[in-house]
């Protein structure tokens, strides 16, 4: 039995692979399955591979001629690709050669192809799994129903996380079907807040590698390490160095849970094919003493490398990625410490397709929430005053994007629009008298004002209409702060964005109760609906998962080579435009997650449109309908039929 995944080689050969299976077994009486695992690594390997294939093709032609077989083109022999997602977002009409599983027991151990009890009787015979499964044949829908029932039995969120990760390693399509169909229930499990606990305990729960680990030991040979990854056509990389995981601090190598979780959402919410996603952790050590003493820690046991040693490793990684995967691979920086996050984005944004979710993704989703909230509050963006608690990568990133949007709307210089935005850090209000001691990314927000030490003092003096928390410190929006906001705003807008839930500046219940139900509230982590003054409020979640999957898909389908700030604004506008009147009636400023794939398609289309407009798109000609094109490119988790 030969099961091959066809690729670019077939495009230049007229002979089909249709009927290989029947020819191999029925005509030649081969008694055992023939497993062909082909992988074209390097030029020498490619030459050998092509020579082997030419010989095989010749043999097949002769056999087909002798048996009067019909040589119709059939890319994907052994697999009937009725959904087409393997071709989605590819430059070539069919996928390149990859390692393939042919049949039998190994097929049931391959998460990319395994269907479990959903294999039909015909497929069980054709692929030598007869007897390796119980006799029942069930649908994917019934499998999904059983798994959701089982997941709901777990009382501990981390147990659900581990069960889902096991499923991903066992049956990839069923994992994504489960996640897509139950996104609102499962998002907090594979993403915040549960992924934070998973990272803290990653050494204890680690079972199988789900991405690439590049440590200081790999310095000088990162390109070789990248070639060890089995998939050769990568479109999206999420990379972290684990120094600032959510609001939990330095988790070192155990930060891998973040790239794994983010890329699961790229596929489930944005439709980017899982085979084109690569999670990466850069391990330069950790300053977390508890981890260094933990016998189960999976990273290198040393203090964090900094300075030149750190920069050289990151630079080698960036160059190796571009060399191995090309100009159009998206590199998403995730959970780097402030100083490195800003530096890496500034250093590589002109030469690579890079995106920092903490700086840019958070900014885009918050801007969308603010734009939507204005429909409830009234007034234009420039007529409001913003106060931030937290002046790190998230806070300054959000502030800058709001200032850019204000500038776009009013045609005023961005230096002017920044004056409507104030930031408070650990030392108090950022003012011009502190200029010399400020980090470079805080300096644009140092305005003329007397120094103020506390957030409450700043709220009372500045009188903001919008209060945004990105400090990573919980319980900082106190009762006095919220009551002060409510005292001079009919509808105070309060965003408590810090993750996980334990680090949120305030809870939804506190915001609604202390404002007597008048606050427009959104948070970074999910909160349950709240009843206040006889009315039920559904808190919004300013979750980056609204933005980055669709944003990444837009870059991929347009073949973008660089990220421009206007693309982030385009993503925000698309998200804000998805909030319906029915959503507003419930006090929501974000659309429900159950529609996330449609939302992502709209965002992708808007981002792609901006890429074409800016001359940064390489996939030509431009599709006539970008929304339909985005939807057509999305990965489907529905099982494929095997011949």
From TrEMBL:
(S)-malate binds at residues 244, 499, 543. InterPro entries: Aminoacid_DH-like_N_sf, Malic_enzyme_CS, Malic_N_dom, Malic_N_dom_sf, Malic_NAD-bd, Malic_OxRdtase, NAD(P)-bd_dom_sf. Its cofactor is Mg(2+); Mn(2+). A divalent metal cation binds at residues 334-335, 358. The active site is at 191 (proton donor), 262 (proton acceptor). CDD domains: NAD_bind_1_malic_enz (cd05312). SMART domains: malic, Malic_M. Divalent metal cations. Prefers magnesium or manganese. Gene3D superfamilies: Malic enzyme, N-terminal domain, NAD(P)-binding Rossmann-like Domain. Residues 168-349 form the Malic enzyme N-terminal domain. The keyword Nucleus does not apply. Pfam families: malic, Malic_M. GO terms for biological process: malate metabolic process. Residues 359-612 form the Malic enzyme NAD-binding domain. It catalyses: oxaloacetate + H(+) = pyruvate + CO2. SUPFAM superfamilies: Aminoacid dehydrogenase-like, N-terminal domain, NAD(P)-binding Rossmann-fold domains. It comes from the Eukaryota. One of its GO terms (molecular function) is malate dehydrogenase (decarboxylating) (NADP+) activity. Belongs to the malic enzymes family. This is Malic enzyme.
């Amino acid at each position: 039995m030969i099961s091959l995944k066809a690729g670019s080689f077939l495009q230049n050969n007229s002979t089909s692979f249709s009927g290989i299976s029947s020819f191999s077994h029925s005509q030649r009486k081969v008694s055992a399955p023939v497993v062909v695992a082909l992988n074209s690594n390097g030029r020498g390997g490619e030459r050998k591979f092509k020579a082997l294939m030419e010989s095989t093709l010749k043999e097949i032609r002769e056999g087909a001629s002798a048996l009067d077989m019909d040589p119709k083109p059939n890319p994907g022999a052994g697999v009937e690709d009725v959904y087409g997602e393997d071709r989605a977002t590819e430059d070539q009409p069919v996928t390149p050669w990859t390692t393939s599983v042919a049949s039998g027991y190994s097929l049931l151990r391959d998460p990319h192809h395994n269907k479990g009890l959903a294999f039909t009787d015909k497929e069980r015979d054709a692929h030598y799994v007869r007897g390796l499964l119980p006799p029942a044949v069930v649908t994917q829908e019934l499998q999904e129903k059983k798994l959701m029932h089982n997941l709901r039995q777990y009382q501990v969120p981390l147990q659900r996380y581990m069960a889902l990760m096991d499923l991903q390693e066992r049956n990839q399509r069923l994992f994504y079907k489960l996640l897509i169909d139950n996104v609102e229930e499962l998002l907090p499990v594979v993403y915040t807040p549960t992924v934070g606990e998973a990272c803290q305990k990653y050494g204890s729960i680690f079972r199988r590698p789900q991405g690439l680990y590049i440590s200081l030991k790999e310095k000088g040979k990162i390109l070789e390490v990248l070639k060890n990854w089995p998939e050769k056509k990568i479109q999206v990389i999420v990379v972290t160095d684990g120094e600032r995981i959510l609001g939990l601090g330095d988790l070192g190598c155990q930060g891998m849970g973040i790239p794994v979780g983010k890329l699961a959402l790229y596929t489930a919410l944005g439709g980017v094919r899982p085979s084109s996603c690569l999670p990466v952790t850069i391990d330069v050590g950790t300053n977390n003493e508890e981890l260094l003493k933990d016998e189960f820690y999976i990273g290198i046991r040393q203090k964090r490398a900094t300075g030149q040693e750190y920069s050289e490793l990151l630079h080698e990684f960036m160059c190796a990625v571009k060399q191995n995967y090309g100009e159009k691979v998206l590199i998403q920086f995730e959970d780097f410490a402030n100083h490195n996050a800003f530096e890496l984005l500034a250093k590589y944004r002109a030469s690579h397709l890079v995106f920092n979710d903490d700086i840019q993704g958070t900014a885009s989703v918050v801007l969308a929430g603010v734009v939507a909230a204005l429909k409830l509050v009234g007034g234009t963006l420039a007529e409001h005053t913003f106060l931030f608690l937290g002046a790190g990568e998230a806070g300054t990133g959000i502030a800058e994007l709001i200032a850019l949007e204000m500038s776009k709307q009013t045609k005023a210089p961005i230096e002017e629009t920044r004056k409507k935005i104030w930031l408070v850090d650990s030392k108090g209000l950022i003012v011009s008298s502190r200029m010399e001691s400020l980090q470079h990314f805080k300096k644009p927000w140092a305005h003329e004002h007397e120094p103020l030490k506390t957030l409450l003092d700043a709220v009372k003096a500045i009188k903001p209409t919008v209060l945004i928390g990105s400090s990573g410190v919980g319980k900082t929006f106190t009762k006095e702060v919220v009551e002060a906001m409510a005292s001079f705003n009919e509808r105070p807008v309060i965003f408590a964005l810090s993750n996980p839930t334990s680090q949120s500046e305030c809870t939804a219940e506190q915001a609604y109760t202390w404002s007597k139900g008048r606050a427009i509230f959104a948070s970074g982590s999910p909160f349950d609906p709240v009843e206040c003054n006889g009315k039920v409020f559904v808190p919004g979640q300013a979750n980056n998962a609204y933005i980055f999957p669709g944003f990444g898909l837009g870059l991929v389908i347009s073949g973008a080579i660089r990220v421009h700030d206007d693309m982030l604004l385009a993503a925000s506008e698309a998200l804000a435009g998805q909030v319906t009147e029915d959503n507003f009636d419930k006090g929501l400023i974000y659309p429900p997650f159950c529609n996330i794939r449609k939302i992502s398609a709209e965002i992708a289309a808007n981002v792609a449109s901006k890429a074409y407009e800016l001359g940064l798109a390489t996939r030509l000609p431009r599709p006539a309908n970008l929304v339909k094109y985005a939807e057509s490119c999305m990965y489907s988790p529905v099982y494929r039929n095997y011949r």
